[in-house]
Design brief:
Blueprint: H1 7-24, H2 32-47, H3 53-79, H4 81-91, H5 94-109, H6 113-121, H7 133-180, H8 192-215, H9 220-230, H10 239-250, E1 253-260, E2 263-271, H11 278-309
Antiparallel strand pairs: 1-2
Length: 311
């Protein structure tokens, strides 16, 4: 928690960051994460060659994350609370999830499959060129559930722990995992450090997100059962609990077949119920939005209890 900051002030900053994100959305030009991605890509191309790839990957992670996090800490100490709220806004992606996914639902409702494929290809790495409506709806719903944690709740958690620099550290580490954390020949060794650091930073937030999805589910028992029984089979230790509980909360059957680079992969099942459709994209978005409101409500409740106890 920020030194000298009351719990009520912290809750207010969390709300301010979320409000700014909802009002302004992601920056259209000069977004810091885009610049960071370009920097990370340049360093990866420079260092991801030769021997000792895991050590080179660790060096690359250090070079791109730690100086920027230290700069964020310096700015926060110099500029005060407004800077922390601004950093949280820039690190959050709640409105971005809505803006990228709801148009897919609209395209599917209108029968514009080509446009829905194009929109879905922007948010997932799987092939969408020949995807049907159910495949596209499934991809969007899965992306919403998983990125609810990565783009929103993990960021809020680390902001509560370490203010703006904590939010910045988490989003930069998560972005590097998305860029380098592949089990491919190119990144198998180079990206392993980025992947493991993201696993560590995400461990607690992912389980809090999964628990939130359970609490907000129409069928809490089903969401809990899906989390406990299905997540161990998922390759990611953090995406598994989030996506399984979220799919169960929505009563959806997710996971299963998906095409990557022309190869169909059979992934473990997620959730239980009917296949995803356009309406379920909107339901997944509402679950993420409700979870954000739940977290803010809990933050202010905790602040009120704390202030009462220490009055």
């Amino acid at each position: 928690m920020l030194a000298g900051l009351t719990v009520l002030q912290l809750a207010a900053l969390l709300a301010a960051g979320v409000l700014l994100d909802c009002l302004l959305g992601e920056a259209r030009r000069w977004h810091p994460l885009v610049g960071f991605g370009n920097l990370a890509g340049a360093i990866e191309r420079r260092l991801n060659q030769g021997g000792l790839r895991h050590l080179r990957g660790a060096l690359a992670w250090t070079l791109v994350v730690l100086p920027l996090t230290a700069t964020a800490a310096w700015i926060g100490a110099w500029a005060g609370l407004a800077a922390h709220a601004a950093m949280l806004y820039l690190a959050l992606g709640l409105r971005s999830l809505r803006d990228h996914n709801l148009p897919i639902a609209q395209a599917l409702r209108g029968g514009d499959l080509a446009h829905a494929r194009s929109l879905t290809a922007r948010i997932v790495s799987r092939d969408t060129a020949s995807a049907g409506p159910e495949d596209l709806a499934k991809a969007s719903a899965e992306s919403l559930l998983e990125n609810g944690n990565d783009a929103v709740f993990g960021t809020l958690f680390w902001f509560a722990v370490a203010g703006g620099p904590g939010a910045v550290l988490f989003r930069l580490a998560n972005t590097l995992d998305a860029m380098w954390g592949y089990r491919s020949e190119r990144f198998q060794r180079f990206g392993c450090v980025a992947a493991r650091i993201d696993d560590v930073l995400n461990f607690i937030p992912a389980r809090l997100t999964a628990l939130s999805y359970v609490l907000l589910a129409d069928n809490r028992a089903l969401a809990w059962r899906c989390w406990r029984s299905q997540s161990p089979a998922w390759p990611s230790p953090n995406a598994g609990p989030v996506m399984a509980s979220g799919a169960g909360a929505l009563g959806l059957a997710l996971g299963g077949a998906a095409v990557y680079d022309g190869v169909t992969e059979q992934r473990p099942p997620l959730g239980h119920g009917h296949p995803a459709g356009a309406a379920d994209i909107e339901r997944a978005w509402k679950l993420v939005r409700s979870t954000a409101l739940l977290w803010l409500a809990l933050a202010f409740t905790a602040a009120a209890i704390w202030e009462t106890i220490h009055a």
